[in-house]
Amino acid sequence: DERLQMISINKDMVDSYFDEINRQYFNDELSVDYELDIFTEDEQPNELGYCVPEDDGCIVLGLVEEFDSLDDFLATLKHEMIHLEQIKNNRPVGHDTKFCKRATAIGASI
């Protein structure tokens, strides 16, 4: 069963890797409160993650509950953290050239 090789994520795991990546690649500048949404593939088909600001100022970081590998999880988390950086710096959220260069530099998925 291919699902046996997948990794499941949880809040503690995400928080731990978030803190590590924040220190290593973002100069600890993403230390903001975010709401974590761990969703199923059925809830968000074809999505691995998202990062959106809410009207109340909260930022929601969403990640699918299972990844093919730890590397896939980390690449997706880094991708969403770049979006978090865009939001925090009041820049348009998207996949422009600046995003792609940043993603490539830190090993994020594009």
Please tell me about this protein's structure.
Helix 1 (11-25) crosses helix 2. Strands 2-4-3 form a 3-stranded mixed beta sheet, covered by helices on one side. A two-stranded antiparallel ribbon has the order 1-5. The chain has 3 helices and 5 strands, in the order βαββββαα. It is an alpha+beta fold and 110 residues long. 40% of the residues lie in helices and 19% in strands.
Bulk shape = globular
Q: Calculate Rg over CA atoms.
A: 14 Å
The count of helical stretches stands at: 3
Share of helical residues: 40-55%
Distance between the termini: 28 Å
Q: Report the order of strands and helices.
A: EHEEEEHH
Average pLDDT works out at: 92
Strand order of the largest sheet: 2-4-3
Low-confidence runs of at least 5 consecutive residues: none
Total strand count, please? 5
Give the biggest sheet.
3 strands, mixed
Overall structural class, as computed from helix and strand content, comes to alpha+beta
Share of β-strand residues:
15-25%
Short synopsis of the structure:
This protein has 110 residues and is an alpha+beta fold.
Task: List the SSEs and their pairings.
Elements: E1 7-8, H1 11-25, E2 34-39, E3 49-53, E4 59-64, E5 66-67, H2 70-88, H3 97-106
Helix pairs in contact: 1-2, 2-3
